[in-house]
């Protein structure tokens, strides 16, 4: 059985040619793709590249169906201007010249009235291509518009891992295919990172390796596990501490390794004396036997690869939990072995110089930095979120859909409804954010423009060349930035005036990498460090070369640490000196007895693909996964309409009664458009934007809620 429904590369139809590119979407795999191109210039099937050693010929089904998205009848094709009330849906088609002129005029008007910080360019990872994603930063810095703190996805996980290792890299991800045990922790890889499963299953087939999955519900990845550990949301650190307690107790701890490579193993051992399996069982909901069995498996299997996912970043104690999970590999000495150690992301190995692309030389540290996750608070005038400065009155949005994906959705929608806020959205579809805009302009898709990509979950830099011609009335992100720069008087500043291909070459040259033509021939470039560096056998990346059991939560550099003007975030004084369970999460209480997580759906990717017919058909409708015990207590039957809520609001959706979730836990897989819900309000009505300690983040899986059957 093919558990991941992957699409394998095969010989193309003789009448078609094959183009090579990379998946542009917000996924750590960044798969190398083969795209069939017919004689009429249209794409056909999309497949994984067989000769790419990480993709290994396998991609997810939703990307394999990309032609459905590219040729979707609802794709935006012309610039439009709003002519009715915001959200009314009345639009007038205009020319590109008119659209760009009006956007520039609105920005100049906002700047003239409230200063340059009144304009907030807003973007994220709808494309992961460096040129098309990040060029908006160059315009921001050239014009001294409000800064953008990109907090919504990675920060807690990245922070926790770098607190431990000093850097964001680790053992070659392909070693998951050469190990004796893979621990997939905090990621539903079958749904979100199919290649993790490709390599894990290779080890199972070839080496009889065990696959352990740690997650909060019985998802498709759990169903492939030899050992499945379902923990209560936000309790991962307790499990990690108990595993390390057992390692010290039963002699699995590699004391010689820790003496050479860790900062304070004696202090850690003393701290863990009370972190018994019984202690952890009461917190996590696991049995003592499950915890003991897990600890014994990894303790007696030297080649254990801990694949730590982005689930850690969705809880308010996520940084602490990530640090604790990574610490297991150091207590056991797993890093010493091929197929051993801990891995989250390889982001630090690529060393790509994007300074010119992003206009770094023009960045003014005195310009305020606004938190992406707090867009609702920013747009509704929250003084703290605005850094106690003036309002945001004009925005350009590329590559993201905040009205759907941002937390505190009611605040977000209220902010976008402001009559004094001008919004331009550059998009591929009329998203719910675009529906509230003043100007909407159509964007290209990844096979229609040039770009360069670097993976997070693997080890390659990949070229994404233009493969087919776009519709004549849509434009690239770079085109929009360049044209606005001309109208706003900054086109003569550094970094402007280059085509996408030219900018790719400039990035490659300043990064000491082969040029565009080399990539065009060879398709990708392996940036994986050698074994000793990848496994930290030359020391970890802290100044003393030691792994940090005692993290410096206040001072450690991190990939996306907020600037000094923002400072530490969240309840950082409560973070522990050693790995520990810290309950800064939204704990269930008498009024809100359930914990809600908004986990990814297999056929969507954030809000992308929710517009395609096949993905929507496969997902069905927005539903809430409820344990049968909880359903019975609340008088709920499968398929009933239910209501869940908290202090932020309430949402109605249909009950999916299943043993795949534990009592007290609710799962709403998404991300469905708001309008797909009964009342036109989506699950992010219930999620919070308060920052995760110590460096920020959005804890969208960390929510306490009440539940009741809907009587309407």
From TrEMBL:
The keyword Signal does not apply. PROSITE patterns: 4FE4S_MOW_BIS_MGD, MOLYBDOPTERIN_PROK_3. InterPro entries: Asp_de-COase-like_dom_sf (IPR009010), MoPterin_dinucl-bd_dom (IPR006657), Mopterin_OxRdtase (IPR006656), Mopterin_OxRdtase_4Fe-4S_dom (IPR006963), Mopterin_OxRdtase_prok_CS (IPR006655), Prok_Mopterin_Oxidored (IPR050612), YoaE_C (IPR037920). Pfam families: Molybdop_Fe4S4, Molybdopterin, Molydop_binding. Residues 16-74 form the 4Fe-4S Mo/W bis-MGD-type domain. The keyword DNA-binding does not apply. Belongs to the prokaryotic molybdopterin-containing oxidoreductase family. PANTHER family: OXIDOREDUCTASE YYAE-RELATED (PTHR43742:SF6), TRIMETHYLAMINE-N-OXIDE REDUCTASE (PTHR43742). This is Molybdopterin oxidoreductase protein. It comes from Rhizobium gallicum bv. gallicum R602sp. The lineage of its organism: Bacteria, Pseudomonadati, Pseudomonadota, Alphaproteobacteria, Hyphomicrobiales.
